[in-house]
């Protein structure tokens, strides 16, 4: 496993901006040559799963890929939309290069790219349960149906995402968009496996980016830290804040953070000290960790390595080994709360 990547080259590559007239950086040219090129005739694209930052995402089947050989395998295919801008294509390429440099069991694996086709394709491993947010919402209990997940399952999901984020932190990389919708989940031998994905916004540590990233219609908005909303600063500690919001999503089975507020109210609420409420049925030990992630002073928040130690320790507690449905009855969960707030995507 590549525990440490070449941080210097990736930092230069992810902060490089192409205006249409600049020559591509040497670092990026080298990284592009290292991408696992797939033959488009070996790719069969199936139904649409979602719309991503740069285009549609489909499931598919590959009969031959450089990473896994000639055996047939299910895949996920991200298409670059046909009307892309030069910067969107650059970001698409950066995402491919980043994923090719990552090597960790809790990060979605790049299997191949098709860059000489229209549209260009980015091919990743297939996770059969889809994105984490949809999975959580499908697990909400009803009056007649128990939840499909246990507290033990939820802690396992949290630890998987935490491991992926700790790997990025160790390699001085900031995801900038940690959220349940950007994690993928699968079931293997009755065990849930969760991986961190969607690196379209990722950059080197301590990047700065206002504008669309922090705008009222930004898909990141409800997961952003106060310092990001104030000055556009992204650091490993702003990722920790976002991870705290993912904890809220996980323990509430996919409820919308700040669900009583419209997008235009979020920034001022967070900058003035507002944080998500405690989810009903959330164990006090996990809520305490959430509050640590949401400390106003970024330097006071724990690192992902410290958070991982805390969650691994909770796993030894008998309360978190409970495999009964979570929660035990419908109660708080109201499906009308899902999707009613502006532009939660």
Automatic annotation (TrEMBL):
Protein name (database record): Protein kinase domain-containing protein
Organism in which the protein naturally occurs: Diploscapter pachys
Compartments reported by the entry: Membrane
One Gene Ontology term of the molecular function aspect: ATP binding
Pfam families in alphabetical order: PK_Tyr_Ser-Thr (PF07714)
Annotated residues for binding of Mg(2+): 182, 198
Gene Ontology cellular-component annotations: plasma membrane; receptor complex
Keywords: ATP-binding, Magnesium, Membrane, Metal-binding, Nucleotide-binding, Repeat, Signal, Transmembrane, Transmembrane helix
InterPro entries: Kinase-like_dom_sf, Prot_kinase_dom, RTK, Ser-Thr/Tyr_kinase_cat_dom
Coiled coil: none
Membrane topology per record: Single-pass type I membrane protein
């Amino acid at each position: 496993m590549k525990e440490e990547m070449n941080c210097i080259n990736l930092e230069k590559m992810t902060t490089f901006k192409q205006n249409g007239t600049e020559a591509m950086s040497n670092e990026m040219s080298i990284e592009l040559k290292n991408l696992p090129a797939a033959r488009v005739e070996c790719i069969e694209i199936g139904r649409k799963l979602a719309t991503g930052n740069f285009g549609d995402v489909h499931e598919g089947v590959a009969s031959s890929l450089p990473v896994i050989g000639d055996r047939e395998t299910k895949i996920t295919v991200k298409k670059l939309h046909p009307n892309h801008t030069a910067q969107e294509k650059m970001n698409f390429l950066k995402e491919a290069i980043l994923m090719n440099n990552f090597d960790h069991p809790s990060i979605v694996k790049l299997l191949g790219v098709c860059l000489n086709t229209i549209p260009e394709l980015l091919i990743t491993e297939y996770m059969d349960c889809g994105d984490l947010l949809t999975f959580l919402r499908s697990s909400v209990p009803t009056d007649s149906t128990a939840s499909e997940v246990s507290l033990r399952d939820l802690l396992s999901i949290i630890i998987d995402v935490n491991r992926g984020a700790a790997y990025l932190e160790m390699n001085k990389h900031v995801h900038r968009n940690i959220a349940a919708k950007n994690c993928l989940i699968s079931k293997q031998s009755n065990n849930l496996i969760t991986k961190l994905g969607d690196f379209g916004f990722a950059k080197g540590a301590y990047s700065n980016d206002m504008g669309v990233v922090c705008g009222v219609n930004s898909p990141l908005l409800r997961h952003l830290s106060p310092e990001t909303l104030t000055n556009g600063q992204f650091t490993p500690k702003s990722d920790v804040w976002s991870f705290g919001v993912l904890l809220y999503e996980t323990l509430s089975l996919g409820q919308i953070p700040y669900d009583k507020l419209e997008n235009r109210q979020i920034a001022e609420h967070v900058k003035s000290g507002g944080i998500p409420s405690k989810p009903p049925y959330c164990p006090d030990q996990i809520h305490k960790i959430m509050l640590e992630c949401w400390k106003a002073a970024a330097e006071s928040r724990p690192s992902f390595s410290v958070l991982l130690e805390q969650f691994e320790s909770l796993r030894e507690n008998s309360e978190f080994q409970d495999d009964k449905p979570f929660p035990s009855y419908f109660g708080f969960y109201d499906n009308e709360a899902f999707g009613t707030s502006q532009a939660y995507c």
